[in-house]
Structure formats: structure tokens, C-alpha cells
Amino acid sequence: MKKHFVRMVVGLLIVAAFLLHERGDIEIPLLRKIENIAYDTRLRLTMPEGVDSKVVILDIDEKSLKEREDGGEGRWPWPRDRLALMLDKLFDKYQIEVLGFDVVFAERDETSGVRVLDNLAKDALRNVPQFQAAFGRIKPQLEYDEIYARAMRGRKVVLGYTFQEDDPGKKGMLPAPVFGAEALGQHTLPIPSRPGYSANLDVLQKNAASGGHFNPDQEIDGVVRRVAMFAKHDGKYYEALSLAVVRSYLGMPPVKLEFADYVQGDAELEEISVGGLKIPVDAKTRALIPYRGPRGSFKYISLVDVVNERVDISELRGKIALVGTTAPGLQDIRVAPVDAVYPGVEAHANLIAGMLDGTIKRRPAYAEGAQFMVVMIIGVALAILLPFLGIGKATTVTFVVLAAAIAMNFWLYQHENFVLPIATNVTMIFIVFGFNTIWGYFSEARGKRQITGFFGQYVPPEIVAQMSKDPDNVSFEPDSRECTVLFTDVRGFTTISEGLDPKALSELMNEFLTPLTEIIYKHHGTIDKYMGDCIMAFWGAPLPNPAHALAGVTAGLEMHRVLNELQPKFKAKNWPEIKIGVGLNTGRMSVGNMGSKIRLAYTVMGDAVNLASRLEGITKEYGADIIVGEETMKAVPEMIFRELDRVRVKGKENAVTIYQPIGPRSEVGQDTIKRLELFDEALKTYRRQDWDAAEAQFRQLAEASPENKLYDLFLKRIPVLREKNPGADWDGAFTFESK
To answer: Is the pLDDT at 133 greater than 60, yes or no?
Structure first.
């Protein structure tokens, strides 16, 4: 027992973390993601598929939007007199039961020209009796909104609209609320109040039977799994489009809210009762959408075919019809658990069918308590039992428990319509089992040997020794971390290598790579790799280093100083002069053990790394030994930098500002600072596109320091830019087309 005590305690702590997550005391985001995946999997495995016949979707498709001569009605929205004709045919000829609109009619219909004629009647032609008489006769026939409104009167037409979450603007007219706050009594609904809305014209909403909101309820992963049945506005509650359609279908029965009285504290909403139908919801009034299958689980009929009476009456008689759109440019597309491209109107259709069929899944208020007990029983049992079992028996027990938990959860989902969480159970079982398995294979001594053997090729021995003292805090796993990365490359190395035999070339490389490596180690850097004559190194990993940017810049400056000291030795051996370019950049990057199953390497990757490589490549363009990115400059206030330019390097669209480190502030003289200020002024003049003044300033600098290539670079650019005239929106950046 004593031998396994620590393992049991750690296992119980793991279980405690999952229990705290279930209680809501802590949040484990990964479990939410796994839970969503598990729910989507169950849904896809059990959905009935096939086509539901109760609901038909009248599609504003591409065919409907073609011009009249091509068999369509033209672009949406159609003239309201045509929509009125559509209503007449749907209710009189096709005898549908309810018509719901997944579109909003927020603007007046001006296609008839009645507003123009009305203005003429009030102004230019007010004294023309013939015009006034004729206009008076035909005006009722041109008021398309009125015609459309009259066509709705007395028919089960449900208009759609949207609430605004952040915008307080109010447009159009809301339908009557379903109930007010007083109807809740002592209960509350934990849903936010929506300040604004975009609704239908007053004349239309007044003549429609009802209205419902169709606000999307996307979850954190962007998937639509549920829809709130009510939205709150000005202390009143308004129903969703799907619920409004069902109520219209049933003759507008009242809505009853069923609260779970057995929950301690405030009772939670558990169910909505409408005309004998029970609609399971959560505390926020959200109902799970009972998706039948992928896109196309309901009959789609082109709306233009309805207008032109090209549809068999049997396909619509007695049906609930929803008007929605799939036409390009009008598509109301959602991401659904069953399809990544799913029409929003079909989500409403699924909900309507689910309400009428009673197939909406429910998660009762007591589910959280039940889940907590299941997690505790399974977790405590495994945490205590597994340390005493060998790997074989432990594996068998774990997977029997896992299979039983999944089977029970699936049975409740399929046969009892209960949606109980499963991610916490499954994840906890795997983690408790994994912990106990790993414990048997890894010891502290082995961890130290692994760290020493692995990191010994990357970092100096003193860092390896420091890591070995606390191996539990050292990870090979990839992580996102702010680091500083350095690239250095020998300029003209191809020419140098062609002039030396292999033995001399190898000796030369050893002579300059060794001191450069020693400098990186001296400043506690990590060698990433050697690439021929190039070194890649970084600071900030594997051990944190708050001064990683300073260490990298200091190392880069020291590299150039040491190389200059080596030149006489190289000359004595008849070797060519070695000059290097150094690029440094700071930022968040992925760091860790990466590669393939065959070979792994501890390395850094990301945009910040790529930029450092590009900066090294352009050092020769500016005659600079070292170029650093803006984040590196900001992280090293101890140094004085010269702002060189704004550039777009190969592979990046956004411009970046680049800098050249001059030296520590305490060591840079006033003359140097003066020259830097003069260059900074010239750079500002250049970016203002004051070409003549900038040219004069750069020329003055070049005459004072003819050996500095930087000033000539701008003097060559100015005539080109003067002729090109980049315009007022020019950001002053130069684009490099090569690496």
C-alpha cells in the first residue's frame, strides 16, 4: 500500500480536477471540444436520414433569380405584388398550412414607381386634373407593400427577423411578445437582453399571423447545434421562427414554461409546453437541433416553380413551407454537425419537424448531478485499483470500464433521448490509465539521462546540468513561446568554397564555426542546426530566459567582433576574408521536439522564425552586419538601434520595420548618435515623399561617410520613386522579391 501511495494520491488529484470541471469551479477547454465532437458523432451515427415530408423548403435558388426571359423572376427581393401572387397560389391552389419566411422584409418596395408618381402629384403635376384623376385610380394597384400585406391577412404567415446583439438600432416592427417578465413569477431566464433588431415593415407584420427571430446560435467552434427558443428585448420575450411556425400550425396555443423544481436554489427551465407538445430546452431556452441528416433532408422546391405553377399540388398540400435561400450571394450558410455547408433554413426545418415528432433530445437539469456521481465513482475506483495491477490487467479493466461507460451513454441517447456528457468520463479514464502506465516506465534517473543525452547537442553543459536538477519541468513537447531566433550566414560562401580544396574548406569552417558556437553557448543560446556555413540558434528555450532578446543581440555583435579578430589569422593561411550577415527576430513561435517518426529535432518554427531568416538575407543590401526585427528592438532598451527601413520580405504581405543594433547605450559616442539622428530625419523626409529634400539629406550623409552603403541605397531609390509617384497611401515600405 505504501509503495503505491503516491500514485493513488496523484490519480485522485486527477479525478478531483475533472470533478471540479464538472462542478464549474474550473474550466478545461479541451473537454468542451471533446464533448462537442462526441455529441456530433452520436448525432451522425443515429440520425434517421431520409426526407421528412411535413416541411417543404421553398428555395430562392439560382433558377429563381434568373431574368424573366430565362424562366426566373429576377434578382431578390422580388416585387411585393409578385410575392402576393405567390401567397395566393400557396394558400389557395396548393393549400399549404403554414408559410414561414427565413428572410426579412425591412425595406419598402419601390419597384412600382408609386413614390415618384406621388411626388409628381404633390408637386409638378398637382394642378393637372387628368393626372390626378388617373393617379388616384391606379395608386392602389401600385402600393405593392399594401397588396402583399392584404395577401397575408387571415393566413398563417410567419415572418422572420433578427435581434442585434451589440447594435441598439431598431428597424421595422416586432411581432407581439410571447410573454413578459411578469409571466415568469419567481423564476428567471439567464439570457441576455438584445438591444436592437432588424424586423419587417409595420404594414407587413401587422397583417402576418406571427413572427419569429432567426438569430444564429453558433458555439465556440462555429457549429450550430442548438437554437434559443426565446430572445429578450425590453423586458419581454420573443419566440424563435421555428417555434412561431409550430404555434401557427397548431392554432397559436399559449406557451407554458416547465421548471425543474428538484434543483436546489433557483429552478432551471427544462421544458416548453405548446399545445400538448413537449419541447426540451436548457436553462437558456436553447433546444438541440434534431438534424435528420446532411443537407437535403427536406424537399426543396424552387420558388419560381411555385409562382409559375410548375409544382404538383400533392407536394405542398397540408405542408409547412419555409422560404429560404441557397442562391450564390444570398446563401444563409451555417456549419452543422452533419455538414460543413448547411443552409440555415434547413436548420429551422429540422427544429420544426423535431418539435412535431417529439424527437428533440433533452438534457434534464439533474444530468449534471448524475454525471458528477458517475465521474466520481469511476475515477476513484480506477485511481485506487490501477496502481495494484500489472499493465495487462490494468489495460483490461480500463477498457472494460470505458466500453461500459460509452455503451450506457449511447443507450440513453438513442433510446431515452437523454444527452448526457461523455467527454469527462472518457478523458478522465484515459488520463488516469495513462498516468499509471507511464509511472511504471519512467523514473527520475531515466528522465535525467534523457535530458542530458538529448539537449547536450543543443545547449551548453551548464544549462543541461540545470535542467537535469528538475527534469519534471523540462518538456520535449511542442509549445508556443516567445523566443529570439538568430540566423547567420557567410557572404559569398559559394565563391569561397570554389577557391579552396575540401580539406582547407573543412578547416576554414571549423575555424570560424567553433568560436561562433562558443559565443552562442556563452550567452546561453540553443543551437538549432548547422546548415553548411549557416548557423541557426535561439534563446528562450528549453529554459525560460526573460532577457532572450538582449542575449541574442549581444551574441550577434560579439560574433562580428571575434570574426574581425580572426581575419589576420585567416590571411596568414591565405584564406579569404570571412564576413557574415546576422538576422535576429523576436516573437511567439512553436518550440519543441518536431520531425518525423524516423528522426526528431528540438527546433523552433513559425512566422517569427521565417522573418529572422529573411532579415539575415537582406543584410548585404543595407551594408549592415546585423538586422533585427521591431520586436527585438523593443525588447532591448539597453541598446541603441538605427531604424534602417520598412520592408516587405519574401513570403510576407505586411510591411515590417527593420533595425541595426549600434551598441550598448553606455558605449555609443555622441558623434555616432548625431549621425543616427541625421539619418532618422532623412528617413522621415523620404517617407513624406519630399524627394528633393530627402536626396539632399542622404547625399550629405554619403559625402560624410562614403564607405556606408546604406545612404547610396536610398539615393538610388529616390529617382525611381520620384518618377513612379507611389501616392498618398504609400506606407514607405520597400518590397524584396527574393529571399
So the answer is: no
Half-sphere exposure (Cβ direction) of 495: Cα atoms closer than 13 Å: 7
3-state secondary structure of 493: helix
Grid coordinates representing 348? 429551422
Q: List beta partners, residue 486.
A: 537, 584
Nearest CA to 112 among 135, 86, 88, 87? 135
For residues 174 and 244, give the distance between their C-alpha atoms in angstroms, rounded to a whole number. 13
Cα separation of the two ends of the chain: 63
Q: Is 251 left (phi over 0), alpha (psi -120 to 50) or beta?
A: left
SS3 at position 187: coil
Average pLDDT for 725-737:
87
Task: Quote the DSSP letter at residue 314.
Answer: G
Q: Which three cell numbers stand for residue 615?
A: 532579415
552 close to 484: Cβ distance less than 8 angstroms: yes
- Do 721 and 688 meet the contact criterion of CB atoms below 8 Å apart? no
C-alpha cell recorded at residue 216: 444564429
DSSP string, 19-84: HHHHHTSS--HHHHHHHHHHHHHHHHHH---S-EEEEEEEEE-TTTTS-GGGTS--SSSPPHHHHH
pLDDT at 447: 46
The separation between CA 721 and the C-alpha centre of its own chain, rounded to angstroms, equals 39
DSSP-assigned beta bridge partners for residue 482: 588
Helix (H) or strand (E) holding 260: strand 255-260
Give the helix ranges, DSSP H, for 416-547: 423-439, 444-455, 461-469, 493-498, 502-522
Cis peptide before 471 (omega within 30 of 0): no
Comparing C-alpha atoms, which of 258, 283, 262 is closest to residue 271? 258
* Whole-model pTM over 0.70: no
Domains of the chain from N-terminus onward = 2-46+373-435 (no CATH), 60-252+303-326 (no CATH), 480-632+646-657 (3.30.70.1230), 669-730 (no CATH)
pLDDT-wise least confident of 77-91, 93-107, 367-381: 367-381
Report d(CA 478, CA 605) in Å as an integer. 10
Q: How many CA atoms lie within 13 A of 310 on its CB side?
A: 11
Whether the CB-CB separation of 590 and 606 falls below 8 Å is answered with yes
- pLDDT tier at 274 (50, 70, 90 boundaries)? very high
C-alpha cell at 334: 451555417
56-70, 245-259, 601-615: least confident range: 56-70
Give me the pLDDT at residue 445, please.
43
Rounded CA gap, 541 and 562, in Å? 25
pLDDT tens track for 442-493 = 534 444 444 444 444 545 555 555 455 555 555 667 789 999 999 999 888 8
Mean pLDDT (the chain) is 85
| Model confidence band, residue 186 (pLDDT cutoffs 50, 70, 90) | confident
Instruction: Provide the pairing of β-strand 534-539 with 580-595.
Output: unpaired
Predicted pLDDT of residue 332: 77
Specify the 3-state DSSP secondary structure of 97. coil
Residue with cell string 485511481: 383
Give 625's DSSP letter: S
Give the three-class secondary structure for 382: helix
d(CA 412, CA 414) in angstroms, rounded, equals 6
Separation between Cα atoms, residue 408 and residue 42, nearest integer Å: 13
